[in-house]
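note to self: dont lose this again. the chain is below, predicted strucutre after it. 201 aa total, dont forget to put it in the shared folder this time
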Amino acid sequence: MSEAGRTIWAGLTTASPLDQANLVLGILGVWLMIRRSLWAFPVGLAAVTVQAVLFVRSRFYADAALQGLYFATFAWGWWHWVRDRAAAPELPVTRLSGRARAVTLALAAGATVVWALLLQRWTDDVMPWRDGFIAAFMVAAQILQVRKNLENWPLWVVANSVAVASYWRADLAYTAFLYAVYLVMAFAGWRAWHKSLKVQA
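---
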């Protein structure tokens, strides 16, 4: 087995119970979101809570605060999916207009710059621009996801691709592996929601 393979195996088998719970909840939450199940929301709320605890324990307070934003979007999304479906079985998948896509990308790009500059100014982050990009685009993807916009999945694909490449280059094979799992699931979600959109049409 290669060194990377041994690192991944060690991560899977020796992680703390809280880390393992975080992994299981994260994968389960994405799988439920791909299926457009309302159960994705309580699972997602539990997942980001566990993640926040892990970040606080590691003293990554900015990342912990980011989980608070995810928590708020999950809570709002749950309410939105239930309230706005009216008498329909589920809230339909929608697409953004061309203008809305441009605005989303512009806001995510602007947030990347702000986040990276803050990291440079106030922390000793070794890759502030990468971290700023991943954070900004994942937040944008999360917001689009709870709005049930199809475009959330390509944003997850981009953010996860950057994360996989970055962590692999940093010799963090286990973390790269986890993001690779989420990357594959993002492609699956994109395909499933696109199929649902065509059925609706």
